[in-house]
Write a structure and sequence with these properties.
mainly alpha, GIL1_IRKI_C
């Protein structure tokens, strides 16, 4: 019996070694496929959403301290939305950040320089391997140190352009008016700004997610939902999990509830849908 157990243990060890050897000898294409699962993409996406929420919260706090009317700001972003609660207007600001930082995600070069690389112009194997390599390399770096040591790199360029597009100099001047800020530096990322670290961290996560998306075959697709669209459980998730009873009654009375706006875009990883997170438009309040 002892001999049989010893032989069984040896067989188990041999099987594990064979499995490791098989993975080590696996062709590069198969190694890539083993890594690129829906779960991997979803995990990186969740981290990206966490950092995007964090940046939006910091931005909202600065807006409050500067005396901004958040309701008016939200109405400028997505007009005429009926919020279930007054505080829900912050979702419009989160939407502005998310959709802005994810803009051009479907472009291979990502940076907003007016050019667009077509898929037909890229060899699939080269595209996948390069994207995965960039994902792995960037994930091992500290984005703050990368910005400091290589201020002209592609990632730093991406950060500067996205910041300039999302945070207009006039907005920044209002938010940071109590800080000593040179007029000429408004609209550009500065290490002294309270927005610097959270923005760079958010941008870094989007950069990595983009590189990961382009390592898949087919490429991960991004989508958002148009305002007024009917709610679909397949493609959408209500970002407000506890729906107000009045909104639910309203939804039953008029068939399906309607989308107010997209907060977080959705993604298609092969045939798997990662739902877009949307804010539902509630019933009009009686005046």
């Amino acid at each position: 019996a002892a001999l049989e157990k010893a032989l069984a243990d040896l067989d188990a060890v041999g099987a594990r070694l064979a499995d490791r050897l098989e993975r080590a000898c696996m062709p590069p294409e198969e190694k890539v496929e083993a890594l690129l699962t829906v779960g991997v993409f979803d995990s990186v996406l969740r981290d990206t959403c966490r950092l995007t929420h964090r940046f939006a919260r910091i931005l909202v706090d600065l807006m409050k301290m500067a005396g901004w009317d958040l309701g008016a700001a939200a109405n400028c972003i997505v007009p005429d939305v009926n919020y279930a609660k007054p505080g829900h207007c912050r979702y419009a600001i989160l939407s502005y950040i998310c959709l802005g930082i994810f803009e051009r995600f479907d472009s291979y070069d990502l940076c907003d320089d007016g050019s667009r690389v077509e898929l037909d112009d890229i060899d699939v194997t080269i595209r996948r391997n390069d994207s995965l390599q960039q994902f792995v390399e960037h994930s091992a770096l500290d984005p703050i140190e990368l910005m400091r040591d290589f201020p002209s790199c592609d990632f730093a360029n991406f950060c500067q352009k996205k910041y300039a597009k999302l945070i207009h100099p006039g907005i920044e001047s209002s938010l940071l008016r109590n800080l000593a800020t040179a007029e000429s530096s408004l609209g550009s990322l500065r290490q002294t700004s309270p927005l610097y670290e959270p923005f760079v961290s958010m941008a870094s996560s989007v950069w990595m997610l983009h590189k990961l998306a382009w390592a898949y075959d087919p490429v991960v697709q991004i989508f958002q939902v148009a305002p007024g669209a009917q709610f679909s459980m397949v493609f959408m998730e209500n970002i407000v999990r506890k729906v107000d009873k009045m909104c639910m009654d309203h939804g039953r009375a008029s068939s399906r509830p309607k989308v107010g706006f997209t907060v977080v875009p959705g993604f298609c990883v092969g045939k798997t849908v990662i739902q877009s997170r949307v804010y539902m438009d509630g019933p009009k309040q009686a005046s």
